[in-house]
Amino acid sequence: MLPEDPSMNKARSVCVLLADDHALLRDGIRPFLTDLAEDVEILEAVDFDGALQMASDRVPDLLLLDLKMPGMAGVETVSAFRKACPDVPVVIITGQVVREDVLRAMELGASGYLPKAMSGASFVHALRLILSGQPYFSAHLLGPGGGEGEAAASSQQAGGRFADLTNREVQVLSLLVRGESNKEIGLHLGLTEITVKSHMRSIFKKIGAANRTQAVAMAIQQGVSG
To answer: What is the separation of C-alpha 210 from the centre of its chain, rounded to a whole number of angstroms?
Structure first.
């Protein structure tokens, strides 16, 4: 029997501080944030001072931080938010991925670094992973060679294992990335839950994933979209 991974399910309530000075981007992100929990409170800030004050006054469960907001001093500003709310995951959302910034963000204690070009499904799943306590730094964000040799080798190995998936397994994995449960995947593909679980076990074995959360993280890193 393949259990559902708790981190794939919606939490009861989540407070998110979305700090970005572009109203259009905030409007675009907001609908995806509502899928993180049954009850989602979204706080918004448009500059560094406002975001820092808000994070201090109303400690959120998750902080999404744009590095290009007025008052920001690049990735180094992460340290100010880590000091203001040390237990809150700080996630950088950016339109321009800079390898050095990714590495520095990791050093400063950021929990994630997400390109604004991500698909909505991948964005939601990355945030769910982060909320479950797992940092999210996709290997390809580290640039050519993956940054660290070990990470690059791991990424290449994972890519090779993904090539072993059957067409049906790829379909199942794509729906898993989208956030569907075993029952929903079965209804979508016309399969029984038992068959879906069988495909899941095969997928996990082939790509080397220990659970649903890890499988989704690996799939997103390999460019599998929901």
So the answer is: 18
Q: Is the dihedral of CA 66, 115, 220, 82 positive or negative?
A: negative
**Residue 56, CA atoms < 13 Å, CB-side half-sphere:** 10
How much is the pLDDT for 10? 58
Q: Both tokens of residue 158?
A: 């994972």
Cα 185 to Cα 61: distance, rounded to the nearest angstrom: 30
| pLDDT on residue 141 | 58
Below-70 pLDDT ranges, the chain? 1-11, 138-160, 221, 223, 225-226
Distance CA(152)–CA(99), nearest Å, equals 14
* Spatial distance between the Cα atoms of 13 and 26, rounded to a whole number of angstroms: 20
- Helices marked H in the chain: 23-33, 48-57, 78-84, 99-108, 120-131, 149-162, 167-178, 182-189, 193-207, 212-221
Amino acid at 9: N
Interatomic CA distance for residues 39 and 216, integer angstroms: 23
Task: Determine the residue type at 176.
Answer: L
Residue 45 burial by Cβ neighbours in a 10 Å radius (0-12, 13-18, 19+): buried
Q: Where are the alpha helices (DSSP H) in 120-163?
A: 120-131, 149-162
